[in-house]
């Protein structure tokens, strides 16, 4: 028996039993972080005070009734930072070293020498300056890339990014860099941020990496920018519709790397998510301040300091 | 006309004209660094004083007549360091993040979530402590791995490796690490260094990366260690026979990444190689000390300091 089960009545439920299970509950732990069941079951939340979600992005639970309620929302900030940063560096190296083509040539038993690219000295713009974006910036910089960021407010002395551009003027800065990494939270402001105008503003041959949310991107515009050859490639771990539908053109494009929303999910990730909840549970139980409290107007946990 | 062509009579030749072209020549630039033509044409070298090779490894020209002669041998040390280091980090990330499987699943349009691995905190042993090995050590360390080295002499205070083990006692240390990177020069001492006993000494699931020379490895033993499942994978850029023969089992093994001896060859590499030769040409012409003089007993350029 988990210590939490000794300290509280714990109900486990799937989506179809959620409304019933919510009745009388003080706290809700949304473990299936992509579940869309919470809004439809909200009528059962007759005394809920706290909702914790096993993800960094809180967009699946940002429905109006929760936003307007007094329910405190916390997320799993921190669990995915290092893993996703490594994943992004891996995709940048995969593009630079042409690994996908090496694997296709290997399948054909074809020995074909090519010239590849350095990553040292290349430039990357990380769109999203939360903890995951910062971990990405630090790792890419350690590997020799020149990094800048894009976030809510422009600044020039950020410890991880150096220069941070204002996301609202993103397109003015997209043409400066070789790699664009999307890791912004999904909010009303960032939805569809990467559209035809953004892709057109990117440098010819630039690569686009999305480890944020699929809805940051207008998928049709991305497909067109890849098809035209303007973009050099895309590494996509998240999609507007997940799982990615079998008829999506993204599956079969040579310059696209598709992965199934797993960039942060290293061995042990589920335990790590439970530990974040457990830590907050004891804080809540003992009346101490919760960690990772989401600003429901912003749609993410604001940076401290 | 290249400035060198104004300062000297330059003869360009393929393998079949080499003996004739060597007659009367003072210097030889071996641009096709994998060519085996030099020993057979050596009888034409009637006044040769300097041989420069467009590679880091000098094994293709380490034949007895050259070793015993007074001909000075120089190599292209430095050109490949950063490129190969990036390539090695890329293969380590490809293993940790399971990129090869993602690409195969993409070809089948299959969405299949898996748990992947962190690289931070994992361990790597770099076998070979020349400039390329050092660049690998620095980059892997910057990316969060814990790195040690193996070289001619053991030491514990190396600036890049920290601890360097003695290559002659390599097998005692292979069991400690997650990734083994082979980048040693090919000499009588290192030929076949990675044999059945070495692979047996590695940790179950360890990955092996070879960016040195194929002859460092007993290929049949490597294939067996991969087939048995003892090794977790291998990334191979060099092979005992190049191009890798179409009937090699390495082409079709799921846990093997084959690339065609190109890990150091980034855009501009050929110009960089010519520049190294050109710099040494003017030094030679002006009687200044040459750079990258190979110790023909050791088979590589000894470290300075």
Automatic annotation (TrEMBL), chains A, B:
Keyword NAD: yes
Domain spans labelled D-isomer specific 2-hydroxyacid dehydrogenase NAD-binding: 90-263
PROSITE patterns on file: D_2_HYDROXYACID_DH_3
Keyword set, alphabetical order: NAD, Oxidoreductase
Record keyword Cell wall biogenesis/degradation present: no
InterPro entries: D-isomer_DH_CS, D-isomer_DH_NAD-bd, NAD(P)-bd_dom_sf
Species this chain originates from: Prauserella muralis
A GO molecular-function descriptor: oxidoreductase activity, acting on the CH-OH group of donors, NAD or NADP as acceptor
Protein name: Hydroxyacid dehydrogenase
């Amino acid at each position: 028996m988990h210590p939490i089960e000794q300290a509280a009545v714990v109900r486990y439920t799937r989506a179809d039993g959620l409304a019933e299970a919510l009745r009388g509950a003080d706290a809700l732990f949304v473990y299936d972080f992509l579940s869309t069941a919470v809004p439809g079951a909200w009528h059962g939340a007759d005394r809920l005070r706290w909702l914790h979600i096993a993800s960094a992005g809180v967009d699946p639970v940002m429905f109006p009734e929760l936003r307007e309620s007094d329910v405190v929302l916390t997320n799993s900030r921190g669990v995915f930072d290092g893993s996703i940063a490594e994943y992004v560096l891996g995709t940048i190296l995969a593009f630079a070293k042409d690994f996908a083509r090496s694997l296709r040539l290997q399948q054909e038993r074809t020995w074909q020498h090519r010239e590849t690219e350095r990553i040292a000295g290349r430039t990357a713009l990380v769109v999203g300056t939360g903890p995951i974006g910062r971990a990405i910036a630090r790792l890419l910089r350690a590997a020799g890339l020149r990094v800048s960021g894009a976030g809510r407010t422009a600044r020039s002395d950020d410890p991880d990014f150096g220069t941070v551009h204002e996301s609202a003027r993103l397109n003015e800065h997209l043409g400066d860099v070789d790699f664009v990494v999307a890791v912004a939270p999904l909010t009303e402001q960032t939805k569809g941020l990467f559209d035809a105008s953004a892709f057109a503003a990117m440098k010819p041959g630039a690569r686009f990496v999305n480890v944020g949310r699929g809805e940051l991107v207008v998928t049709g515009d991305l497909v067109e920018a890849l098809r035209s050859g303007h973009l050099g490639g895309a590494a996509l771990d998240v999609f507007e519709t997940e799982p990615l539908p079998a008829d999506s053109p993204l599956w079969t494009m040579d310059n696209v790397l598709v992965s199934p929303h797993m960039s942060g999910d290293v061995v042990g990730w589920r335990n790590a998510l439970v530990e974040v909840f457990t830590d907050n549970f004891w804080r809540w139980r003992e009346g101490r301040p919760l960690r990772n409290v989401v600003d429901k107007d912003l749609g993410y946990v604001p940076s401290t300091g």
